[in-house]
Specification:
The chain is an alpha/beta fold. The protein has one domain: Vaccinia Virus protein VP39 (Rossmann fold), CATH 3.40.50. Helices cover 32% and strands 27% of the residues. The protein contains seven helices and nine strands; from the N terminus they run ααβαβαββαβαββαββ. The protein has helices at residues 4-17, 23-29, 49-53, 66-79, 116-129, 149-157, 188-197; strands at residues 37-41, 58-63, 84-88, 101-106, 130-141, 167-172, 179-184, 201-208, 218-224. The protein has a seven-stranded mixed sheet with strand order 3-2-1-4-5-9-8, sandwiched between helices. Strand 2 (58-63), helix 4 (66-79) and strand 3 (84-88) form a beta-alpha-beta unit. Helix 1 packs parallel to helix 4. It is globular. The protein starts with a helix and ends with a strand.
Amino acid sequence: MTTEKTWDTIATSFDATRRKPWSPCLAFINTLTPSDIVADIACGNGRHLIPCAQQCRHAIGIDFSRNLLHIVQTEVKQENITNITLLHANAVDLPLKDNSVDKILFIASLHNIQGRHLRLRSLGEIRRILKHEGRALISVWSRWQDRYRKYFQKQWFCRPRSGEFGDTTIWWRQHGLNVPRYYHLYSRREFHKDLIDAGFTLLTMEETFLRSTRHPDNFFAIVQKD
């Protein structure tokens, strides 16, 4: 299970290796308006949160790693950014009011939540805090990407006795670390189903090749609360 301690342990290494914003996120951020209130759920080191703040009225960064939030806070102070609020919280229990946010980013984090019931709960929390016709960009890792395709093909014929098909452990081994992290890699169909079951209207779903060359490694979905 991926815990707060897991992300606290790798926070400095994560920050050093995850500085560049992803282009699908920047495309979504460029649709923000100066009046928007935006939340970046599981904001990490703020690589998408800070560009949000430059486009909107107020940006809220939420993460359950205090060490990552400290990294964001340091950069916010250095850049003299005044329209960011940082909150320490879990994505399955967001400390925001109903219908309080115009746009949301939930990037590369849903797949770190163990158990479908909790993943659906986190999606329900996003829907709860979105305003009517508010939109969210949500991304997950693809199960059938180049790196893990053979692993899950084997699991297809020999299902594990515990856990869900799609579950795996991915180790963070940069900067001399050796830290296990829980992941649930998604198929396109499963991702679509979870978004619909959470009550969203699916506007777009994009397959991207961030590292893979033959098979997409990420899904990016834009959803709306009607």
